[in-house]
């Protein structure tokens, strides 16, 4: 049977890692997949995670299955980190969180949930969005559509066009937003714009789905949750997909979560019963280890403080590289104004480089970035920034 199968295209993001590994030229630079690298190009295990691993390993008593939504302490820790102590959603007990294998697992649970419970719904996405978003929802059989988001003329948010498009959406559809550090553009709405977006969706009865994969990489853990909290008004419904790959550096442990915020506690239980049904047929119940690390760190005041410091260090390093890249571009003779790179937030910068320019960088300089022109700023180091800026200017 397999002779009829055709090869699938290489993944536009993860496929780059394989190509980069196979690259033999010295001085190669990897700005592809969204993985943090330190100033030596290494993706470290955070010291807080090393300590949590020691504690979890020492105290683990069983490898028996977890409940379908995972450990309740993990769910509670995730909710607290997103919403903050004493938030009305927590006090009303109207949110339920399931531990999912990564943020991708969370998105797929949402896809299956929408398909099974709202078969006619379309999920609308920003243009551009993470390359895997449309694929995940299409795989679940959910219709997808796009909304204007990026304004190439200003390298900023096309806010009016975005809001106008939201105002035209039919009730019962869903919108997938990036809670912070928009991937791939690095451009987020201001808090006032978030407020307007939340109000329009509530008025239109359109379900907000927030992909929240970079909390702490923008301006801080609290600051980055501010937009998301605008949606959590009394009685409002929404879904949040979390990932702890980046902010805890737990990429391969696949630690994510999906949180359904319902109208009230009664509805919460009914919704969760459907979420459990979805999870049971995809991966049955989640892996334990990574979530236990996150729970251990967030539950211990000292360890949490240490982790926040490590996260701040990663954030500051990325923002420092944004500034340095802009300086080096000017130094190498770039004519255009690249200060927008410094205003963008999170791991990524939408550089404005075309597909052809991206291909040239790879061919001539062994510099790897996603075809859309997205740069993983965390791949820039004080050692490679000069060569990078020089190569970029040479293809402009
Ligand atoms: C990225 O956008 O590079 C990351 O989210 C990793 C991935 O899975 O694509």
TrEMBL record:
Lyase found in the keyword field = no
Documented EC number(s): 2.6.1.-
Listed A to Z, the keywords are: Aminotransferase, Pyridoxal phosphate, Transferase
GO cellular component annotations of the record:
cytosol
Aminotransferase class I/classII large domain location is: 27-392
**Could you provide one GO biological process annotation from this protein's UniProt record?**
L-phenylalanine biosynthetic process from chorismate via phenylpyruvate
Gene3D superfamilies (alphabetical): Aspartate Aminotransferase, domain 1, Type I PLP-dependent aspartate aminotransferase-like (Major domain)
Give the top-level enzyme category. transferase
Which superkingdom does the taxonomy of this entry point to? Bacteria
Transferase as UniProt keyword: yes
Q: What family is reported? A: Belongs to the class-I pyridoxal-phosphate-dependent aminotransferase family.
Q: In its UniProt entry, what is this protein called?
A: Aminotransferase
Native species: Botrimarina mediterranea
What gene name is listed for this protein? aspC
